[in-house]
Amino acid sequence: MGKIRDSGRTRRHILDAATREFSERGFDGARIVEIARRARVSKQLIHHHFHGKEALFNAVHDVKFRPEVEWHEPLPDRPSRLFVERFRMRAKDQAYIRFLTWEAAGRRRNSVPGEQARRRRIAQYGSELRHMQAEGKLPRDMDHRMIQLAILCLATYPMAFRQITRLVTGRDSTDPAFQRRWIAFLDQLGKRLFDGAPRSRRHGRAAAKR
Amino acid sequence: MGKIRDSGRTRRHILDAATREFSERGFDGARIVEIARRARVSKQLIHHHFHGKEALFNAVHDVKFRPEVEWHEPLPDRPSRLFVERFRMRAKDQAYIRFLTWEAAGRRRNSVPGEQARRRRIAQYGSELRHMQAEGKLPRDMDHRMIQLAILCLATYPMAFRQITRLVTGRDSTDPAFQRRWIAFLDQLGKRLFDGAPRSRRHGRAAAKR
DNA sequence: GTAGTAACTTTACTGCTGTCAAATTATGAT
DNA sequence: ATCATAATTTGACAGCAGTAAAGTTACTAC
User: Fold this and answer.
1) If contacts are CB pairs under 8 Å, which of residues 107-146 in chain A contact chain B?
2) Which residue of A57, A66, B50, B167 shows the fewest CB atoms closer than 10 Å?
3) What is the 3-state secondary structure (H, E, C) of A99-162?
4) Is the pTM of the predicted complex or chain greater than 0.90?
């Protein structure tokens, strides 16, 4: 019998199960009995290791998602790849997207968990963008924070709002065929936006319209 | 005493209250007692008029959000305004955004409610985009469905993921100051993307990079 | 080996939530 | 006036979710 006692292992099992359950059903929808079933422990044991549902939820965030937040990925050198690279990251981490979506939907607490670290992380990304602006790789006449937000829009939305993506494109956002096309599109987008007029010298086009 | 009985009025009150409650807390988080309190009726009366929580939820969608889905807005003539106009719409209807977000987060049912109408609505928008492509107003070398999705990304995400928007820009997405800047940014984006190189004749740029 | 501690189980309960059924009150037709 | 019908209130309950506390089993140090 593999009945050896190992608190670390069971804690891990519980956390894994809880991660999936919370991701799928959200905090209110999640059932701790279900988590117990998935982790193959009794629900009381969950309450023994962690202390209540709320605490378990926080633990899940800390253990499972904090690394994601802390992780620092290098920016691509070509600015036109900003969209694509970010999307690639997001597409790999569906669970985190779902967590973000639940967080956005619910308003259980005005301060988001791990706000400090996330703010730092985001600020750092922002300063790198500004640096690219200074180098002339990104247009200077655009607010770098808005560029950053746009990157997140295009990288996150299709994975978060899967039902919409399916309605619009006919394919689920997890479908590799969709991801290929979206990446191709983001590449076009990046090139048109940033390769074409990287300098700030007024991005003169034929002002034909209007 | 305004104690006259008017089923229509109370039904409306219940629906209003339910709309807010479901928007704020989602299906699982919503409490029908709370809906009753807001509508100033007893919870049993809710169960009398509608039949259970699930049915009430569907009714809310039908009555409150269906019109939004059905509504047909004219596309702007200048393609560069596509982003801005869509965002303007979205910013006005926070409740609908929240509904979409809950819908995206939860997986209560694989088929989304009102799918038929929404699909038709979306397809129509798509065909108008294709028409703009045919007119040369939009680049032909981009997949119009991806353009459509991008529009939704940029219009919806900041309003849906308010916590992210706040972390990135420092302002809440309902803040008029943010909305002004985002609109300005989307305008720049649209111009760079669609005013500059509307034709499909290879959008020649200085292929300096790489 | 034994004592102590921590992992796990069992039993039980409390509070809440959605729902049902019956009683009451208003409304409208005849 | 009366009677049927629908609106609304009252009362009650059955189920479940989270939790607490006590009991049992395994592991560890001495």
Assistant:
1) 107, 112, 115, 118-119, 122, 126, 139, 141-143, 145-146
2) A66
3) HHHHHHHCCCCCCCCCHHHHHHHHHHHHHHHHHHHHCCCCCCCCCHHHHHHHHHHHHHHHHHCH
4) no
